[in-house]
């Protein structure tokens, strides 16, 4: 099927835009409504075309496109008035016209927004029918139906706007809740740096956590985890699992046994079974690290000479809900030299929609080697700065712990 031909033959005026609002195409209905030829528009910014009628006002269009990029869902805008010249009338005389518009994403194979359709519809007849109904004028059956549809459409627009505001507020609350539940270890130990960076898109906010426990003199437990989900639900699950893993570590002192106990607990929490986590125990007396992973990316250990990075991938089990609770989880122990650096993180640091995760891991290893001479705080900042960023911000939450051993 020739989708370009379908777009151009579509009855309602429509533009095809890039995410940065360059015009890719305009259908014939749009060209007829505004008196342009396609060559006037294609390749130009939507805000730089010679005449913008009956296009959406720039501030509204930009805000709508931002919502589409964030949610990957269509967005309907409020009605607006834009008068048009009437052929055959004196110059400067225009006819009162009203327009309804919406934007919709065209997604690529990786789920990213490739293009945006901006459609404009002339609803002047519906508005006039609505005004006539309000003034008590007698309407035909068709006019009454038109007026009712317009009223319903405007009510739907208001409800959509209320939902968007409620969603934004929930996201802000969720991020604040998560930050309040994560420990501030930087004040306790100068050899530890922690970072939490929420995703820009509310679809991914608030699933990641880190934890840092003093199990005894020279005996430290460091954990990082990732709950699938977003918003207040994910933040609530995160808080429960983090507390449960902390309790299990205090009770057992063993990463594998603690993750097994956490898997037992996760069965009782809806939405927790796909959670991944890695738990480590650092013994500063024997200079050893013991760790266990539940479906989580492997920690990295930069040697004291800052030349070699060891990937801690020997103990690798599935996520919490992927094993029967009674099945034992594995753990591994390795030695380190004083001056080494341990890095734990969530997959938001290495995973990108358009790249294999191994590519992201290799990039992180390279960045760790390049910046390994830095202290924990500047090193954490450098690791976050060097990752490729989605043009509107991080694709996913990122939790990061850097420990100088």
Short description, anyone?
The chain is 35% helix and 24% strand. The protein has helices spanning 3-9, 28-34, 38-41, 58-71, 124-134, 141-181, 231-252, 255-266, 357-371, 376-385; strands at 14-17, 23-26, 75-76, 80-81, 84-85, 94-95, 98-107, 113-122, 192-197, 208-216, 219-226, 276-283, 288-294, 300-302, 309-311, 332-335, 341-345, 398-404. Strands 1, 2, 3, 4, 7 and 8 form a six-stranded antiparallel sheet that branches. A five-stranded antiparallel sheet has the order 9-18-17-14-15, with helices on one face. A five-stranded antiparallel sheet has the order 10-11-12-13-16, covered by helices on one side.
Note down, in words, how this protein is organized:
Helix 5 (124-134) crosses helix 6 (141-181) and helix 7 crosses helix 8 (255-266). 35% of the residues lie in helices and 24% in strands. The chain has helices at 3-9, 28-34, 38-41, 58-71, 124-134, 141-181, 231-252, 255-266, 357-371, 376-385; strands at 14-17, 23-26, 75-76, 80-81, 84-85, 94-95, 98-107, 113-122, 192-197, 208-216, 219-226, 276-283, 288-294, 300-302, 309-311, 332-335, 341-345, 398-404. With 405 residues, the chain is an alpha+beta fold. The longest helix has 41 residues, at 141-181. The strands form 4 sheets. Strands 1, 2, 3, 4, 7 and 8 form a 6-stranded antiparallel beta sheet that branches. A 5-stranded antiparallel beta sheet has the order 9-18-17-14-15, covered by helices on one side. A hairpin with a 5-residue loop joins strand 7 (98-107) and strand 8 (113-122). It has 10 helices and 18 strands. The N and C termini lie far apart (61 Å).
